[in-house]
Amino acid sequence: MATAAQRRIKSVSYAKYGYMFILPFFVVYFIFSFWPLIQTFILAFSENGSRTPGIIGFDNFKTILAKPAANDFKAMGIHKSFWDGMKNTVIIWCGNFLPQIALSLLLAVWFTDLRVKMPGKGFFKVVMYMPNIITAASVAGLFLSLFGDSAYSVVNTLRGCSMTKDQLLAAGLSAAPEPWKIITSCWPSRILVMFIQVWMWFGNTMIMLMSGIQGINESLFEAAEIDGANSTQTFWKITFPLLKTIMVYTLLTSMIGGLQMFDIPYMLHTGNVVNDYIKTVAVFIYEMFHGNFAKPSFGYSGAASVILFVITSILGALVFYVQRDKDAIEKKKKQKQAAKEWKRKQKGGGFSI
Amino acid sequence: MNKLKKSLALIATLAIASTAFYACGDTTDPAGSTAEESKTEESVEESTEESTEESTEESTEESTEESAASGENTVPETGDKLSILCWTGDDVEKMIENFTDNTDYTADQVEYVNVGSSGGEAREQYANYFAGDEDVDLFVLEADWILDYINNDDYTAPLSNLGFSESDFDGCYDYTVSIGTDNNGVLKAASWQSTPGGYVYRTDLAEEYLGAKTPDEMQEFVKDWDTFTATAKKLQDDGHKIAMADTLGGMWQVWQYNRSNAWLDADNKLIVDDYCKTYADLAKEYYTNGYVTKEDQWSDGWYAIGQDDSTMGYFFCTWCLGKGSMLSNAEGGEGGKTYGKYNITAGPSGWAWGGSWLALSPKCDNGEIAHDFINYFTVDASTAKDYALFKSEFVNNPDAMKAIVDEGSNKNDLLGGQDQFSVLYESASTIDMDGKITAFDSQIKDAFNTAVTKYAKGDIASYDDMITEFKTEAAKIEGITVE
Hints:
The structure holds two protein chains of two kinds. Chain A is mostly helical. Chain A contains 16 helices and no strands. In chain A, α2 packs across α15 (298-322), α4 packs across α14 (281-290) and α14 (281-290) packs antiparallel against α15 (298-322). Chain A is extended. The relative contact order of chain A is 0.12. By secondary structure, chain B is α+β, with helices and mostly antiparallel strands. Chain B folds into two domains: 41-194 and 355-406, Periplasmic binding protein-like II (D-Maltodextrin-Binding Protein, domain 2), CATH 3.40.190; 196-351 and 439-475, Periplasmic binding protein-like II (D-Maltodextrin-Binding Protein, domain 2, 3-Layer(aba) Sandwich), CATH 3.40.190.10. The longest helix of chain B has 37 residues, at 34-70. The interface between A and B is large, with 47 and 53 residues.
């Protein structure tokens, strides 16, 4: 029998304060994240060309996914833009992720290696993280003036494209070289975007991997050193396997971010029109609902977003499936089996194997 | 005590969370903190009390006379400030300055509200802005998308609400009135400018390379497109390595104006005619032979070519020729390398580029001053003339412009003292954009220009491929059909 005091103490519940503290987050989340998410799904099944669209069913998905008839320019335009966008997104993401992870991993290992006594580590870490702090708009502006199509961009000026007639005479040239059109050419523009993405994000990834490496028990490295393992062996036998979880996390976040890549591809152009070769799916989505003020295509945007959502979910699940901890699953299975066995024995009807 | 701590913590959390909402606040407010605003509101109230007493007496006298002729001003008079929305202060700020200098209204009573950094943005921002409860009285519309707004009664109110009748605008260029009229024949917007364009060229280079000493002599070298091409060829053959036209974008503005068809027919079907082919081939010829520079319009390079002898001239229209405008940038500003070394001629064909209209919001709550503002810049020839000289603007009033041309009082320093109005006055009277603009022009134009540029560059091999690409791109625009 509990005393009155004990009962009182038992009845003091702190749970409600916890709920109160997290309430603001949930309110904000529901208004700004959850409702828009639901709304996107509704829009995916809505008609185009109206600010208050009605539901039309699966037509938007059909237009985007099915092969259009040869003379149906509208379906062709939508279908082609979406798949071109998809292609560009995948190409740019691959060309961004692979070099980025390699570079970040290398730097992370160097920065955490006990044997490397490098002065000014902190300085380098800060400098390498710096590009991530600059806004994408400034970065796009910066690279436009460096690598722009104009004869007056830095690269073309260095090549002498903007030389005046007198300067040409002085240099003994008959004509100035043709300016490189990096921004409006297919592969150069893609490579430039890949480079910008790597440059902006490798510092971030490096910091993440470093924290992963520092989470590994130091005695393992010491033991390896005592056993005479060299750096390569230490990396492949200890660091890399134990870094798997953080690598999966990096892969996943980078993939989700990569599929939604928008800012740099959207802003890296002059004039009014976004360059076709770096137009990603996110840019397509934006243009569809944004370009046409009086008759916005909310339906196509919504449908493309949902398709992107499904692709992201599948890829995410796939990554988790491939990277799942096989030993743990095996162990669990065995445990279950043992429990079953034991139960059967308890019933008395069984026999031991 | 514990309770106090908890509630304090809760309040702190809520306070932090509430900052998440802060960014959603009013971004359109031009550099004004709320504290500042409330202060100015107070002072406005004070000053309006004084000034309205004087000014309303005078102006009501005027406007009652007018309204006897042209209807009542039914817009309420409850607001304290005339808010004019636009995406750039280039025009509106100058207009407000000129308006408040020459009327009894004070600068506190008229306010310019910036809604975006480009016309395309403003097109969307307006709708968002109207949905809120901010003050909006007048707003500026651009030729490319004016039809979106004047055909929507939620966004624009008839100018007759302010007491205007159509006959009030008899003194304006006809085409500006018909574009400002919606599908039901209701006048919804009035323009303060007409936008004829010409060919602006380097006087020093024209004399050196072509021997043309005056604009009239230069006009002989550019009088039509064949002659223009021949001149471009001559410059290349003589080894001058100079283009005749600034950019493909600039050339297209001239050509686009001279199309005989609108982009869409009555059923909103895209029209691709022979004219497209003629232009595409010309663009390719110009681009490959260096008759036009390889820079993009609206880029930094567009201005740089104006100072380093890369181009003989630009296709510029009225609003490119004022202080701080495109021509000024192309000359490198005051004291720039080519400052004042340009002159203007009519060029190979008459053309006009864009134009802006003032429209009335249904939410307008400053009827009196809104009426006077529109009246000042569009109806009243004498004030319009004053503004023309003040801003170097080609105002929407042939009589006012004629008077300026006859007086010869306008001297444009950017053009070495030449009067651009005398050159453009003739072509202004021939402008006819009525029926040639559609609600989708800006997007169709972009799609066509992009396709042509790719064709000229050689990214697209044949004209047919180019048209397919153009059609595919244009077909994405909801509301038009492509076959």
